[in-house]
Amino acid sequence: MKFLCVAAAVLATANAFTTSPGQLAVSRPAAFDGVLFTENSSGNAHRTRRATIVMDGKANAIRDRIKTVNNTKKITSAMKLVAAAKVRRAQDSVLATRPFSETLQSVFGGLINRLGGEAADLPLLTQREVNKVTLVVITGDRGLCGGYNSFMIKKAEARMKTLKDAGVESDMILIGKKGSTYFKRRDYPIRKIFECGQNPNSKQALAISEEIINSFLSGETDAVELLYTKFVSLIASTPSVRTLVPFSASEISQQGDEVFQLTSSNGDFGVERKELGAAEPQDFPNDMIFEQDPLQIVNSILPLYLNGQILRTLQESVASELAARMQSMQSASDNAGALAKRLSQEYNRARQASVTAEILEIVSGAAALEG
Q: Where would one find coiled-coil regions in this protein (predicted)?
């Protein structure tokens, strides 16, 4: 009899649950029907079911904005890496032109020492009264590079104002779309416009140097000044001004140089700079006979020197632009990360508030049904 009683008790307890694989039903008071529990007739539906939280429009809008900010961060990070690769290419271009510049400087220095004061009679070395100055302004073709273009534009405007206050006429040779667009809209006197590009070559530099030499030799201008951005580091660049024409023989033969190299350590980019002294003047003995007149040789070297200097400043300006773009994109990526973190906190607060509101609604409904 005891065995029969125990078996009956077990069967009565088992009736409260259905243990079939396809369904799990829990006995509950009728007052909670449709409030706390949801029955599934399919076992697969029960296993794949996920909690669905219904949030208000504010939380959904924050979630969409987080996704947009993260996508923007990916774009800016990619643009930073692209700019870094282009800086390396500009660095290789500078190193590739260095041997030619050294040889040219050495030959020029030797010829100047051989000629002595005779070289002062060359047109490109002749100093004359300055009544008109041509400014060669180098800017970029693109934006998203911080204050790179605006700094150079302000430098050019300040130089134009200084010359005007001194009673000296001036006009401009513009290199780069940003500068040309700005100055054309404001009716500045423009002599010629060239594009800069991301990979300057000797053909571009030759076209610019020919325009400069023709303007000077024809008497249309008395001096040519170059305004460019000197590459200092990945986080710093300096707008600089230098006189291109007329040349100074001592400056050409004694001017040093410096090269830069992009490095990376622990994922951070850096720049190593190396100062290079002036090339030693080549020794031409007094009894050496030149097939051409040494003055003609010097006169032929000067345009080559100008071409090399313009190519070098174009490469340095492009490197400065790319470094500014790297820094700008890094700042944008950092700001996007900080914004995404703040939005995630707001989203979590909104989500928590929504869940809390649903729980309160369920408890209130249950309490109302019990009452």
A: none
CA–CA separation, 225 vs 168, rounded Å?
A: 13
Which amino acids are annotated catalytic? 145
Q: Is the pTM of this model over 0.85?
A: no
- Determine if the peptide bond prior to 246 is cis (ω within 30°): yes
Report residue 169 as tokens. 């006429």
Handedness of CA 207, 211, 213, 214 (dihedral sign): positive
Q: Which residues contact 194 (CB under 8 A, 6 or more apart)?
A: 173, 174, 175, 176, 204, 207, 208
> Would you call 193 helix, strand, or coil by DSSP?
strand
Please report where in the chains the tokens 């029960």 appear, as a residue.
Answer: 46
- Tokens 């989203």 belong to residue: 347
184: amino acid identity, one letter: K
- Over residues 296-312, the pLDDT tens digits come to 877 888 888 888 888 88
d(CA 224, CA 162) in angstroms, rounded, equals 15
Alpha carbon distance 224, 123 (integer Å): 14
Closest by CA position to 216, among listed 303, 291, 149: 303
Which tokens hold the place of 109? 């220095």
Is 112:249 a contact under the CB 8 Å cutoff? Answer: yes
